[in-house]
From TrEMBL:
Record protein name field: DUF6350 family protein
Pfam families the UniProt entry points to: DUF6350 (PF19877)
UniProt KW keywords: Membrane, Transmembrane, Transmembrane helix
InterPro entries, alphabetized: DUF6350 (IPR045931)
Entry annotated with the keyword Glycoprotein: no
UniProt keyword annotation of Hydrolase present: no
Transmembrane segments: 7-35, 83-100, 112-136, 148-166, 215-236, 248-266, 273-294, 314-335, 356-376, 396-416
């Protein structure tokens, strides 16, 4: 495959990622335009709505201004003033990352990896800029630079991960000697990084590596438990969710569109559930609180999934705090053998117990930072008035998580026979 074909292939991969992402909201909205509105409205309205949803899904802000009729229907204080919607429907960002990883894997198998990667990034960036420019309107105006930059950054993350994983796999395959030979010069930089890493003392490398591993494992376990808990809450409160669907009177196509929108926010809801388990909980509007010890809510938008929210005081809600504690303890137990192997190579006078404690602290710090970042990207402004504050407090979530991961991780690391250095 020569350079022109590689460029065409990479550009088509980027186009496919953009097309799938923006097609998810556009297809149901087009059906609404055709069947529910009888082709009476301008189709570009639905295109702009799909573009705004896609931009929001990647973290871009959109400045909205409601018309007078909608202001009367909404009834929120300050609904007539322009307001910013900044909450990201993370399902779109997650989809872009996964599709970009697939594109990166395919581009990494071509002879011109760097060239193809650059073409894919430039193509995606130009498409994102075109989408933003085509969606500008006096009632809905997305941020020009955020709409072009943020989706491209999300795409770049997945693309680089896909390329790196595939190139690493190809370099480890003896049968692919030709492929590794073509990219041998490009592998020198990772080789330098690896040599710098190996020059560090064994104990320091072990503590840092296992701290990262344990912190990521603790967050992964907590997020998995949050997904299970969210599913149970929806099942238990299924009647309330259905009642909200019926109260909307959106019809079949409208119900499908609402369901797809809620699925786009599913990663946000899982992260909010994790914040609930950690302790600080989350807010759906200024002055509201949804936490393990009780729920205090004001007027809510008619979103069916909100029917699964717990109501009132919870007698045993504090038991949810055990989930991050158990996750931190298991993370400490899981990385203990690897830390002990590193301790055996301790220089004389080094403290084995100190290395274990520092590893537990690292697990807490890494877990707190990761969960705090997830809480930060999952929240934002969702509407006018009190809806300008939706989601968890990222700082509180990070601090609580660091404590609830770190202390149990230290206990898990210290459990068992005390280690002895050589």
């Amino acid at each position: 495959m020569n350079r022109p074909l590689t460029a065409l292939f990479a550009a088509l991969e980027a186009l496919l990622v953009v097309g799938i992402g923006i097609g998810i909201p556009l297809v149901p909205l087009t059906f609404l335009w055709a069947f529910q509105y009888g082709l009476q409205l301008d189709w570009t309205v639905f295109w702009r709505a799909s573009a705004d949803i896609w931009i929001l899904g990647h973290g871009g802000d959109v400045l909205l201004t409601l018309d007078p009729v909608t202001v009367l229907l909404v009834g929120f204080e300050g609904a007539g003033k322009p307001f910013v919607v900044s909450i990201a429907a993370l399902g779109f960002a997650l989809l872009t990352v996964l599709l970009a990883m697939r594109a990166g894997r395919r581009i990494a198998e071509t002879p011109f990896v760097r060239f193809g990667t650059a073409v894919a990034l430039v193509t995606f960036g130009l498409l994102a800029l075109g989408i933003v420019l085509s969606s500008l309107h006096r009632f809905a105006r997305p941020s020009l630079w955020q709409g072009a930059l943020f989706p491209t950054l999300v795409f770049a993350i997945g693309l680089f991960v896909g390329v790196a994983v595939t190139r690493h796999r190809l370099e480890r395959m003896p049968a692919m000697g030709g492929a590794t030979g073509r990219q041998g010069g490009a592998a020198t930089r990772p080789g330098r990084i690896r040599s710098l890493w190996l020059d560090q003392p064994v104990v320091q490398r072990t503590v840092l590596a296992q701290g990262l591993r344990g912190g990521a494992a603790a967050v992964t376990a907590l997020v998995a438990a949050s997904g299970i808990l969210l599913t149970l809450m929806i099942v238990v409160n299924y009647g309330q969710v259905v009642a909200l669907y019926e109260g909307i009177h959106a019809g079949v196509l409208g119900g499908i569109a609402i369901t797809l929108g809620q699925l786009a926010f599913l990663p946000n809801l899982v992260i909010w559930t994790a914040s609930w388990l950690v302790g600080p909980g989350f807010a759906i509007g200024t002055g509201s609180s949804v936490g393990p010890l009780g729920t205090s809510l004001g007027p809510l938008p008619a979103v069916p999934v909100f029917g699964a929210l717990p109501a009132g005081d919870l007698a045993f809600g504090f038991l949810g705090l055990l989930v991050p504690v158990v996750a931190g303890f298991l993370a400490g137990v899981a990385v203990r053998p690897a830390v002990l192997r590193g301790i055996r190579n301790n220089p004389p006078g080094a403290s084995p117990l100190g290395s274990l404690v520092v590893t537990g602290i690292a697990i807490g710090v890494v877990g707190g930072v990761l969960l705090g970042l997830l809480a930060w990207v999952s929240g934002g402004a969702a509407g006018p008035g009190r809806l300008a504050d939706v989601g968890p407090d990222a700082l509180l979530v990070g601090l609580f998580a660091a404590l609830e991961f770190g202390v149990p991780a230290i206990i898990g690391l210290l459990a068992g026979r005390p280690p002895r250095s050589r």
